[in-house]
Amino acid sequence: MNYKLKVTIPVVVCGGAVLAYYLIRRFTLPPLDSVDGKAAAMVDAATIEKLEAGFSKLQASDSKSLLKKYLTKEVFDALKNKKTSFGSTLLDCIQSGVENLDSGVGIYAPDAEAYTVFADLFDPIIEDYHNGFKKTDKHPAKNWGDVETLGNLDPAGEFVVSTRVRCGRSMEGYPFNPCLTEAQYKEMEEKVSTTLSGLEAELKGTFYPLTGMSKETQQQLIDDHFLFKEGDRFLQAANACRFWPSGRGIYHNENKTFLV
């Protein structure tokens, strides 16, 4: 049996990748509260007003989200005036959970620094979600066995329909989707597409920007599970879909077994 290996790597990772990104980078990021590790300027009054209203709405609800569980008044007051060096505030982190009270988690990281600046909120949520996995814990050493002798797991073709290996990465020097500008989306698209154009052999392919793509082509890519479907209200409320489809695109090789 010939396995088809499909690698899907999103060009930009949404704030919804909070948990996976945390496990990859949480122990390597410097403990920044803002620029040069110093307290950022005070959050503007309009943002504070929205935060206060959102906090009151969340507390008055019967939401079962981890956001409500851990965003106590004490934590809220300690974090509401903080900002990252990208300008992200507590509002950027919690606005989806406040808008969607049926959220299970309810929080998105607007940039990498948010994990340390707003650690009083992120740390307990992530620990709870991962059933007690603390930020001081380490992932067990990997053991894949002898990958050179990995045999066919389904030689008769009775069980394995398809196999997918998927990973996500964020680009250093940029915030995550909730705080990206349209110019940054386009800049990242240019960097990624230029890099991908240098791939050769079986990885050689074509980059297709979503801007200008026909609805038929876009729907086919969605049906093939190659393209993300629009309409996720949780991501929309987190501002992760702004400027759509500017700066978005998809790359695949000729056999459509390698996708970005």
From TrEMBL:
Residues 159-260 form the Phosphagen kinase C-terminal domain. Belongs to the ATP:guanido phosphotransferase family. GO terms for biological process: phosphocreatine biosynthetic process. This is arginine kinase. The keyword DNA repair does not apply. One of its GO terms (cellular component) is extracellular space. It is an enzyme of class 2 (transferase). ATP binds at residues 162-166, 225. It comes from the Eukaryota. Keywords: ATP-binding, Kinase, Membrane, Nucleotide-binding, Transferase, Transmembrane, Transmembrane helix. Its EC number is 2.7.3.3. PROSITE patterns: PHOSPHAGEN_KINASE_C, PHOSPHAGEN_KINASE_N. The chain crosses the membrane at residues 7-24. Residues 47-131 form the Phosphagen kinase N-terminal domain. One of its GO terms (molecular function) is ATP binding. InterPro entries: ATP-guanido_PTrfase, ATP-guanido_PTrfase_cat, ATP-guanido_PTrfase_N, ATP-guanido_PTrfase_N_sf, Gln_synth/guanido_kin_cat_dom.
